[in-house]
Amino acid sequence: MQTADIRRRWLEFFGDRGHTVVPSASLVSDDPTLLFTVAGMVPFIPYMSGLVPAPFPRATSVQKCIRTLDIEEVGKTTRHGTFFQMNGNFSFGDYFKETAIEYAWELLTTSEADGGLGFAEKDLWVTVYEDDDEAIGMWKKTAGLPDHRIQRLGKEDNYWSTGQPGPAGPCSEIYFDRGPAYGAEGGPIADENRYIEIWNLVFMQYLIGNVKSKVDFDILGELPRKNIDTGMGLERVAFIKQNVENLYEIDQVRPVLDRASELSGRRYGADHEDDVRMRVVADHVRSALMLMSDGVTPSNEGRGYVLRRLLRRTVRSMRLLGVDRSTFPELFPASRDAMATAYPEVSADYERISRTAYAEEEAFLRTLSGGTTILDLAVLKTKEQGAPALAGDTAFQLHDTYGFPIDLTVEIAEEAGLAVDRGAFERLMTEQKQRAKADAKSKKLGNADLSAFAAFRAQGETVFTGYTELETESRV
Ligand code: ATP
Ligand code: MG
Ligand code: MG
Ligand code: MG
């Protein structure tokens, strides 16, 4: 089943059941507290909170998402993309828990011939919030699930809130069992490689207050209008239905992986490290393409920095695969062709997107050739001396003189088994900033354009941590 086919079945199923089909919003969220759209519900937040009356009681979408928090997982787990598409069905004070469970079960288990997704009932497991006996009863009634295939989890896993006073509620997640070849028996609690989370149903039913943390708050009462928010990973269902091993091997991603393999002459499946790198390339090229298509351009802060990091990690991964020359002119068209059916704009805008991408690669290759030798030597020297960490001033010099990003230095050092003295690095960065300030003052720059300093201002800050989960996401 092609990804486009799964998407079509989804929209038809919920469309036929009274849901308004809403096109994907941009990856660049309207919500100023969010760097990116991280879930299907993001465009609907005003309706969920009741701030704005919903123009329709039910909606469905296939939403483009970016989760930077998952960047370290990419290529290593089977199921995390930095870009992915979340299929959602939403109810704004209309249907609730029982209907949401019924719809999910029906779509998953209806045969492919009858327009469903054709999962075998015996392969599906669910988790529920530990106190949610109501949901357990409904799963038993609707799906006839035996007790052992319904697992109870705590607030950490199966409770949704924004971390703020307001709407909140329990979740129930649906998992696919890949069978004994993939790990231990016993459900998602035992093994998340064998049991793949495909769909999360959120039952927004309470108003919470006195919030001390994500797991410590008071339930003030029931919401007058309860909402349903669900998210099914399109790529996850695709990789299961396409009988491949992970989401980097599906029809929308695999062509890039194959190009990386051809360009490097390394066979996919021959070496674990190389496989991870090819999967990283395939994922990051697609994410970068989709971000640029939504208007993001590489820069040193915010969204542009995320894009820049994805592009640079792609270059790095290709180098680790033994390719030093530019590869974007071959990788990006492969991704464009794989994505254009679902998103024709990546083709229409390709001229603009590719110009930016190729220029960024050229610039970074120049940076790398300047910095890598110095870094390699420094790593050698540090190891010879038996020190556990690369000196902060080396990292600073690389950054200052060669424009070598600190996260790359950290990554390269880590590969050699070394840490980086981040404390010393940050101190040097701060000193430099102060010098620059003092300098500007002493020269009485007045209203001169100081934007040239923006680059290191941004890099001195923590610009790449923890803003992927919806709950904690905030503009940095
Ligand atoms: P996981 O535990 O596997 O990281 P999650 O619990 O963080 O997933 P949710 O926030 O519940 O994911 O998102 C709803 C659905 O979106 C998930 O059930 C999954 O199918 C899909 N999904 C989430 N993150 C990713 C990702 N990084 N790449 C692909 N699909 C994803
Ligand atoms: Mg996650
Ligand atoms: Mg999960
Ligand atoms: Mg989940």
From TrEMBL:
GO terms for molecular function: alanine-tRNA ligase activity; aminoacyl-tRNA deacylase activity; ATP binding; tRNA binding; zinc ion binding. Residues 1-476 form the Alanyl-transfer RNA synthetases family profile domain. Keywords: Aminoacyl-tRNA synthetase, ATP-binding, Coiled coil, Cytoplasm, Ligase, Metal-binding, Nucleotide-binding, Protein biosynthesis, RNA-binding, tRNA-binding, Zinc. Its EC number is 6.1.1.7. It is found in: Cytoplasm. Its cofactor is Zn(2+). The keyword 4Fe-4S does not apply. The keyword Zinc applies. GO terms for biological process: alanyl-tRNA aminoacylation. Its main location: cytoplasm. Binds 1 zinc ion per subunit. One of its GO terms (cellular component) is cytosol. It catalyses: tRNA(Ala) + L-alanine + ATP = L-alanyl-tRNA(Ala) + AMP + diphosphate. Belongs to the class-II aminoacyl-tRNA synthetase family. Consists of three domains; the N-terminal catalytic domain, the editing domain and the C-terminal C-Ala domain. The editing domain removes incorrectly charged amino acids, while the C-Ala domain, along with tRNA(Ala), serves as a bridge to cooperatively bring together the editing and aminoacylation centers thus stimulating deacylation of misacylated tRNAs. Catalyzes the attachment of alanine to tRNA(Ala) in a two-step reaction: alanine is first activated by ATP to form Ala-AMP and then transferred to the acceptor end of tRNA(Ala). Also edits incorrectly charged Ser-tRNA(Ala) and Gly-tRNA(Ala) via its editing domain. This is Alanine--tRNA ligase. It comes from Subtercola boreus. The chain holds residues 1 to 476 of 888 of the full protein.
